[in-house]
Each structure stands twice: as structure tokens, then as C-alpha cells.
Amino acid sequence: MAEVLADGVGASSTRILDLLADLLAAACSVGYLRSDATVTDLRVLLCGAVLQLMRLNVGGEATWRRYGELVINALRPAEHGAGTDA
Q1: Would you write out the chain's pLDDT as a tens digit for each of its 86 residues?
Q2: 50: closest CA among 9, 16, 19, 5?
Q3: Which residues contact 8 (CB under 8 A, 6 or more apart)?
Q4: Using a CB cutoff of 8 Å and minimum separation of 24, what contacts does 61-67 make?
């Protein structure tokens, strides 16, 4: 799936990206994610992490959860006035 999303080509990829865009907009609108987060940001962070874990043949639930948390944390609003989302 990461390879399909990374390429962004095809009907299934387009549909998934549309759904991700809707989820991202909803999360941004309620302040769960930073207001300037884009689908491109999500694709770069998520697909980059997943493709590398796959290519490095890194497994284990704890490892995958760690990188998932890193991706989500990268998209969260800055705290206490640091960054663009004060």
C-alpha cells in the first residue's frame, strides 16, 4: 500500500488519497493536527517511514508503532507557541 500511495497513480490510490485528505482536513479543523498539514506531508512522512521499514526488513509491532507515533507527532500542533501553530 505504501508503494501505491507513494506513486499516487491509479483509481484505488486516488480514492485512498481522497479519504486521507478528508480525514486530514477534519483532524486539522479540530486542532488534532497542525493547521498547515497537507496530504503531501502525510504521504512523505508515512510512505517514507513504511517503505524504509519494509526495505530494511524491520519487523515487530513495537517498531511499527514507534514509527507510526513519530509520523503522527510530526503532524501535531506545536505546543506553547513554538512553531507555526501557536
Answers
A1: 666 666 666 777 788 888 989 999 999 999 999 999 998 998 899 889 988 998 999 889 999 999 999 999 999 998 734 455 44
A2: 5
A3: 14, 17, 43
A4: none
